[in-house]
Write a structure and sequence with these properties.
The protein has about 300 residues and is α/β, with parallel strands linked by helices. The chain has one domain. The protein contains nine helices and 13 strands. The longest helix has 21 residues.
Length: about 300
């Protein structure tokens, strides 16, 4: 079942998957075996509201902006008057695409003049954000639960850390310090407020990435959103949209608005689509416009091939 643990404020509600375990049969001596109750096992859960039976789901409206209030209360971002990307404006003004667009796409935001809105910036300023506290709760419960079970005689002992800083208690301060040192990253774009905070780094839990995406010959927007939902249901912590076919812009918007996990892309794929696959026609201006387009939609991380 789905459960939530609350942080220091009511809007920090961290999801977990709680699994009920059967009793263990313990044989002692020659007597009858006895039953030993096992506590429920709580697992890291990246599936979002898709596994919450009490949550209303409407993919045409997208998910609730979990981080929206946190972003707004920092007072360091501003809403753009419109889409900055030339290609994004072109798609928005094309009447033939009305049926493909999300009706409730949010207005993109950017940092105010002179501001920096990255989690690394906050971390180096000594600021513990709600995102960092959320991550600490998320990372710590599973680790604390494992440490408790390792203390019993029936489980193997911890292995070698190989130099990793495997602390017993993951606190919000530990998260902040790891990000400030550049040893971990929190990939949560301000334009993807639907995403649940998560962290990637050596001293944190292992994360799994899933790849989805349409192509020139198959798939649709509905199928891509379905792939997203199945990916996170089975444990993906991040998802990359590797679409290369038609309507990449609209497909990505639907994926982002319905994703509780960070979404990544390979911008060169779309940039090449814009020049009909002719690499010699690709310019910095086209590639830059693609980066802006995707960042304003809410893409959390890019893979940029250095050989291009």
């Amino acid at each position: 079942r789905k459960i939530y643990l609350e942080g220091s404020r009511p809007d920090i509600r961290v999801p977990f998957r709680e699994v009920t375990l059967t009793d263990t049969m313990v044989q002692e001596g020659g007597g009858e075996p006895r039953r030993e109750a096992n506590p429920p096992l709580r697992l890291y859960d990246s599936s979002g509201v898709y596994t919450d039976p009490l949550a209303p789901i409407d993919i045409t409206r997208g998910l609730s902006p979990l981080r929206g209030a946190w972003i707004a209360e920092r007072l360091d971002t501003e809403a753009l008057p419109g889409i900055s990307s030339a290609y994004g404006r072109e798609r928005l003004n094309d009447p033939a695409l009305i049926a493909l667009r999300m009706a409730h796409a949010p207005v993109p935001r950017r940092a105010k003049l002179g501001a920096n809105v990255s989690q690394m910036h906050y971390a180096r300023k000594g600021i513990i954000t709600p995102e960092m506290e959320y991550i600490a709760v998320r990372e710590n419960l599973v680790r604390a639960q494992l440490a408790e079970r390792l203390a019993t005689e029936r489980l193997p002992k911890p292995g070698h850390s190989f130099g990793a800083s495997l602390v017993q208690d993951v606190t919000a301060e530990f998260v902040r310090d790891e990000v400030a040192r550049g040893r971990a990253v929190i990939p949560n774009n301000i334009n993807h407020p639907e995403s649940e905070p998560m962290i990637i780094g050596r001293n944190f839990l292992v994360k799994v990435n899933a790849n989805i995406g349409n192509s020139a010959v198959t798939s649709s927007i509905e199928e891509e959103v379905d792939k997203l939902a199945w990916s996170i249901r089975w444990g993906a912590d991040t998802v990359m949209d590797l679409s290369t076919g038609e309507n990449i812009h609209e497909t990505r918007e639907w994926i982002l608005r319905n994703s509780p996990v960070p979404i990544g892309t390979v911008p060169i794929y779309q940039a090449l689509e814009k020049v009909n696959g002719k690499a010699e026609d690709l310019t910095w201006e086209i590639f830059r416009d693609t980066l802006i387009e995707q960042a304003e939609q809410g893409v959390d991380y890019f893979t940029i091939h250095a050989g291009v």
